[in-house]
Specification:
- By secondary structure, this protein is of the alpha/beta class.
- Among the domains are: 95 residues, OB fold (Dihydrolipoamide Acetyltransferase, E2P), CATH 2.40.50; 129 residues, Rossmann fold (3-Layer(aba) Sandwich); 41 residues, no CATH class.
- The protein is built from twelve helices and 14 strands.
- The protein has a five-stranded mixed barrel. Strands 7-6-8-9-10 form a five-stranded parallel β-sheet, sandwiched between helices.
- Strand 6, helix 4 and strand 7 form a beta-alpha-beta unit.
- Helix 4 packs parallel to helix 8 and helix 5 runs parallel beside helix 6.
- The longest helix has 41 residues.
- The protein is elongated.
């Protein structure tokens, strides 16, 4: 008897996991589960892996990229959520898991959570800093508008712009403002204005009012970053006065409505004309007052003695000049007299020391010719040298001869 003939047919591990997989997916094709997210990780593939847990149990879950595109907020650890999905098994390891098709936060709506998450992220980057905001030109020539051609917003904007500032040049870039295609179109329009029409003075970006879902395109990161990067000043005008979007926080100026944005963008021509007329009148009055004051001053000055007799203006200066001239002459004469006395004194001293005085008493000066070197000893000359004798009056030239002895 064959001992193996009594054994039951065995399943391989792969067969068992495959059967459990099929059974679970047939039994639980769609379930709703509440729990808290932990170990949440977003992979480069776009798939998000997480664990869903409560106080007693936990189960792995995966949100594939295709399903994640419809979720506006970012799943993160600690969020309490309501998920929808099917129960399955990862057959490679035999792990039980949830394959998620949707996920919603329990404590607040998904869009509101997404709004808060992106707002906090951009605020941390400094995109809401008032120092980044550009001033709106006081007297623009060109206004750009990014909005839909359908609806009342565009009509209101154009009407207010042209009524307040008739010479304004309006450029309109029509875009979708609702739906999946809206955000890319709005962002691209803002970029196109900066690239193709950089001379635009101010840019109005917005739409009429609606629900949070209707206005959501203006909360998308692609739109917010395009507005923040705009070199052209941007006035955001999304919804009604109570509606706020993240675009409002990064724009250079937020308007409560599209009509209000148009009013902020351009001045009122009538008010400008009134102000100019008021300034003109004020200038005329001030000029008249100034001329009157100057006229009174001229009349007062005309009664001044100096103006009645201009000669008086320089009589005093003439007298002072004469006195200064006399004082200068006295000083010069005193100096000259002092120099004369000193010169006479020094001349007398030099004359007393002059060799000519000695010559006048019968002395002479002997100098060797032609060098005129003074001879002080007989050793300074030799026979046939020529000697010049300088006398008190005139000079004598002599030749040195050899001395002859006589008896």
């Amino acid at each position: 008897m064959n001992p193996t003939s009594s054994r039951p047919k065995a399943l391989s591990v792969s067969e068992l996991c495959s059967q459990v997989h099929d059974l679970l997916e047939q039994t639980y094709p769609q379930v709703w589960v509440e729990g808290e997210i932990s170990n949440c990780r977003l992979y480069p593939s776009g798939h998000t892996y997480l664990t869903l847990k409560d106080a007693d149990s936990q189960i792995p879950a995966v949100l594939f990229r295709g399903a994640a595109t419809g979720i506006k907020f970012k799943p993160e650890d600690g969020l309490k959520v309501l998920v929808r999905g099917r129960v399955s098994v990862y057959t490679k390891r035999g792990d039980l898991q949830l394959i998620l098709s949707s996920i919603e936060p329990l404590e607040k709506g998904g869009l509101q959570l997404a709004f808060e998450q992106l707002k906090a992220k951009l605020e941390k980057e400094g995109l809401f800093d008032p120092a980044r905001k550009k001033p709106i030109p006081a007297y623009p020539q060109t206004v750009g508008v990014v909005t839909s051609l359908q609806g009342a917003a565009i009509q209101d904007i154009v009407h207010v712009l042209t009524r307040r500032w008739p010479e304004i040049h309006v450029l309109i870039f029509p875009v979708q403002v609702q739906g999946d295609a809206a955000a890319p179109e709005i962002a691209e329009a803002v970029k196109d204005f900066n690239f193709h029409f950089p001379e635009t003075d101010v840019l109005l970006v917005g739409r009429g009012g609606g629900s949070l879902e209707d206005l959501w395109a203006f909360n998308e990161e692609i739109v917010v970053r395009a507005v923040a990067a705009s070199k052209i000043p941007v006035i955001s005008c999304v919804g009604h006065e109570t509606d706020f979007t993240i675009t409002d926080f990064v724009s250079d100026l937020r308007a409560p409505t599209p009509s209000a944005a148009a009013e902020m963008a351009v001045p009122d021509a009538r008010s400008v004309r009134q102000n100019l007329e008021s300034l003109r009148s004020s200038l005329a009055r001030n000029m008249a007052n100034l001329l009157q004051i100057l006229e009174h001053k001229i009349k007062a000055l005309s009664q001044h003695p100096f103006l009645k007799s201009p000669r008086r203006m320089y009589e005093e200066f003439t007298r002072r000049l004469d006195e200064a001239e006399a004082e200068l002459l006295r000083a010069i004469n005193a100096k000259i007299e002092s120099f004369d006395k000193n010169f006479s004194l020094q001349s007398g001293r030099l004359d007393a020391l002059s060799p000519l005085k000695a010559l006048a008493r019968g002395y002479s000066v002997a100098r060797k010719w032609p060098s005129l070197k003074i001879i002080r000893s007989d050793k300074d000359v030799k026979v046939k040298d020529i000697i010049q004798l300088r006398l008190s009056h005139g000079e004598i030239f002599c030749e040195v001869k050899e001395h002859e002895q006589r008896d």
